[in-house]
Design goal:
Number of helices: 19
Order of helices and strands: HHHHHHHHHHHHHHHHHHH
Helix content: 55-70%
Number of strands: 0
Strand content: under 5%
Distance between the termini: 68 Å
Structural class: mainly alpha
Length: 402
């Protein structure tokens, strides 16, 4: 490593050492790219921090985990905030997506800086840093949008903008205008975060916001079907394995998770209503509040369901990719069946029939638009454990006749 350059950085005070350190990281990455034909590594150097100049600078002058200064002091809370601001400004000023992704990978390619990344992305949303959110979107896809790290990132965003300060939801509402790809992956992740079971129901403000997004821009839920620039992905130094073409397998989109919400919502609402009916001593005001809440929830999920159907219909048949499997459908049916078993007289229950109608719609449109591949008997097997439903029966007849 260039000891003179490292010695120079060690002589700088904070925050100047962080600003200059980021510039040096990009210089090293540029040198490595030129020497190795675009891979982002410096020839002869491995992937560990100890022998990678860019990683060393990041650890010592960005995250301050190690220091060879005569005295080493942890950053204060204010200084940590300054680091986030410096990073955000640096990504904002970096117009080259390849260079931005290479820097992002050095800083956050390893899971050790997840807490910093979560806070940085939250700030990036607030200041509308497009470059940062694009890099975060690629990182989510390479990790898998429903895997633990991206889910933790999105949970912080929901906490920051929907739960802790409800009035801040308006900030998150503008997310599609900053990065459509990040917004798409965010929706995918939160459907995993809130599987709609027990107390894991999505906050109303979150559902309302996603519903607005989907209805205004039906193509938003399909952005991840379009592969990112391979040259950008290659800047991750192969850290995630076979990442040059990560979209060859089933693409993760928010469509299955959002459909799950819409199908399960009326059944969950029915279970809540049954519990309240068994509760004694409820005042007229409490009853009215409960009824208003139920009506509001049913309306928003009905609107979201329409948006999902519009999204699936908007798929270009020539560019269609499979985003749903029969395994997804059977898992959904298993959840639906379990909830229905808790409801008396399901064939005569409006909530049950609404859920089954939506299940049938989802299957029909996904299959018709090429998002789902299935065998002729799959629908009949899927419906074996379900109560009688007119729409599903008609759908089975049409499938068997085709």
């Amino acid at each position: 490593m260039d000891n003179l350059r490292l010695h120079y950085l060690q002589q700088l005070d904070f925050p100047e050492c962080t600003k200059v350190g980021l510039q040096h990281i990009e210089e090293y990455l540029s040198q490595g790219s030129q020497r190795s034909g675009g891979g982002g590594r410096i020839p002869g150097l491995g992937g560990s921090t100890s022998d990678n100049p860019a990683q060393q600078i990041a650890q010592e002058f960005v995250f301050f985990h190690t220091s060879r200064r005569p005295y080493h002091q942890r950053l204060s809370a204010i200084q940590e905030l300054q680091v986030l601001e410096i990073l955000c400004n640096h990504f904002h000023e970096q117009r080259d997506s390849k260079k931005a992704m290479a820097l992002f990978d050095v800083l956050f390619g390893n899971a050790g800086q997840l807490e910093v990344l979560c806070r940085l992305v939250s700030m990036g949303v607030a200041v509308q840093c497009k470059s940062l959110l694009y890099c975060a979107a690629i990182w989510m896809e390479l990790q898998g949008c429903t895997s633990p790290n991206p889910t933790k990132l999105c949970k912080m965003l929901v906490d920051d903008y929907c739960l802790l300060v409800p009035s801040a939801t308006s900030v998150l509402c503008g997310l599609p205008h900053i990065s459509r790809r990040f917004t798409c992956n965010f929706m995918t992740s939160v459907t995993s975060l809130y599987p709609f079971s027990g107390d894991q129901c999505p906050p109303y403000a979150l559902v309302e916001m996603i519903t607005e997004w989907i209805n205004k821009d039906p193509g938003l839920g399909l952005v991840s079907l379009t592969p990112a620039d391979k040259s950008v992905i290659q800047k991750t130094q192969g850290r995630y394995g076979q990442v040059a073409q990560p979209w060859l397998s089933k693409v993760q989109t928010p469509i299955p998770g959002l459909a799950h919400w819409c199908i399960v919502a009326p059944l969950t609402q029915e279970a809540i209503r049954a519990k309240l009916d068994n509760r004694h001593g409820e005042t007229a005001m409490e009853t009215e509040h409960t009824n208003n809440t139920e009506s509001k929830n049913l309306q928003i999920y009905s609107k979201l369901n329409v948006g999902i159907i519009q999204t699936m219909v908007s798929v270009n048949p020539e560019q269609s990719k499979i985003y749903l499997t029969m395994q997804d459908m059977f898992l959904l049916v298993k959840t639906v069946t379990g909830l229905i078993q808790q409801i008396a007289n399901p064939t005569e229950n409006d909530s049950v029939q609404t859920a089954l109608d939506r299940l049938g719609q989802f299957f029909q449109v996904a299959k018709g638009t090429g998002g789902l591949q299935c065998d002729k008997g799959d629908l009949s097997r899927m419906c074996q454990s379900l109560p009688s439903n007119r729409f599903l029966e008609i759908l089975q007849q049409q499938t068997e006749a085709s």
